[in-house]
Amino acid sequence: MLADYKQSGRIEAGCDEAGRGCLAGPVYAAAVILSPNHGIEGLNDSKKLKPAERDILRIEIENKALAWAIGICSELEIDEINILNASFKAMHRAIAELQRKPDFLLIDGNRFPPYDNIDFETVVKGDSVFASIAAASILAKTHRDEFMLHLDARYPEYGFNRHKGYATPQHIKAIREFGYSSVHRKSFHLKQMQLNLF
Known about the structure:
By secondary structure, the protein is α/β, with parallel strands linked by helices. It has one domain (about 10-195): Ribonuclease H-like superfamily/Ribonuclease H (Nucleotidyltransferase, domain 5, 2-Layer Sandwich). It has 7 helices and 5 strands, in the order E-E-H-E-H-H-E-E-H-H-H-H. Helix 2 (about 75-80) packs across helix 3. It is globular, with a radius of gyration of 17 Å.
């Protein structure tokens, strides 16, 4: 059972990101404000859920949350400011888009630059602790996966529909054969040793 909130009586937003460790595509973040009695069963770290489970929960979250929003940082921004800062920027953008302003943020991870003087707490593996962070992880993951399917239609040779931009053997083989596409993160060049592993 995940905790419904950290501090009773406050408007808490859970925040998480998806795509931080990918070789291609943007990083997505989500911010979610759940009701303390949200009525959503099965919330968990998105990585522990099957794709079909995530898709069902996404609909529930978007319909039942008090507020939710997505923030995106492109691969060009990632190359410019690095993936850690891009992840933070995507979270800031998601928080900024919330229709209700939170007075407390629960952030998955161990670091976070303050946003708009809102109190916050970082929680390592927070998507396995708090429902709002788990909800954010599900939205970030499903929205990003959906976008990667669009990229797959543009760049079918890379197999984005299967690995979503992560460094799988298939993806690395495609990079060796076709080179980097315009949506690959150029600051994520694979070492030659890594390329030779597959």
